[in-house]
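Please review this one.

:::
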Amino acid sequence: MEKKNTNILIVAGEVSGDQHGAELMKALSEAKPGFIFYGIGGDEMIRAGLINRYHIKEIAFMGFAEVVKHIPFMMRVRNELIALAKKKKIRYAIYIDYPGFNLNLAKKIKSEGKKNIYYIAPQIWAWGQKRAYKIKKIIDKLLVINPFEVDFYHGYGVTAVYTGHPLVSKMAEYKYKSRQELNELLGLDPGKDILVLMPGSRKQEIEKIFLPAAEGAMKLSREFNLQPVVIAAPSVSRDMLNETAKKFGFIVSDKYGYDLMKEAKLGIIKSGTSTLEAAISGLPHLVVYRTTALTYEISRRLIKIKNIALANIINGKTVVPELIQDECNSESIYKEASKLLSSGELYSETKTNLMNVRNVLGEKDSARTAADEILRFIRDDEQN
């Protein structure tokens, strides 16, 4: 008897979600061939076999005003996905991060009698904690990538499974290039330590973060004999970075991000996934972020935690400096980085604390663990 394919709706909305979604899709298909994936993703998920309805570039909006402006468009996207799920007789939907859109979609999908699986659960422990009650109602299987999230959700009566963090296994499997190889590939000066700048993956982020980061980096490079290298996110147009980078004489690379973080002396990194990559790499860094005044004020009122960088949250103290909004300026960047680079004791202590992040996250292969949990959930559902 021929085995029937299983149609899955899967939705990611950001670059990191695209990468993690692709790994999950591959793990699911390897464990049980016959899945057909429909939904929203980026280049990585498309390469993994996604039949894409929209590309993540089409829904990458940042800031309150920008999101509000595009609400009609996002409602249309949501309705198209609901119609797609009906047409393809999809019973299971997988959501990857991107909570503003995904939780709204999940509510509608649930009302259609379908099953919702959330991989990389919303970070509501940082904002909107009472949304855990909503998640309890509409999400049938919750998979988390930070170990402390299990206890957080348990406090609201929600069962969550820790899968391990996807970056740990991804970075462990990566084949790193040596400093000498990087010198040859990128034309680096072997006599200078590397200073990496990662200004983000969205146009609005780069517009607000890159210039003060570059100005601070330029001053640091002169005083501490550093070579600044800008790591360009895959979704970012090089033209957006090249003008400023050329002005300061910085190298821009859209490759070798992990290699550069491993070999660098310091990083100036936009808040988000990249800061955790730096932490796992053991790279001392500054966390920077700046948005519109309106978005910042709304976020400031919503966020319930002291720190936003996972390295700080996991350690329960400030391990890496966070320069947010008005503090995200060239002078503050220079001042905080100088402290790190001028004190061998502080620099060494920072590296030790970053090593603890890696230890706490553990050794699990997140995508395979998540795939096993999802397959078990589907099997149990089909038997009931």
In short: The chain has two domains: 6-164+364-383, 172-361. The mean pLDDT is 92. The radius of gyration is 21 Å. The longest helix spans residues 203-224.
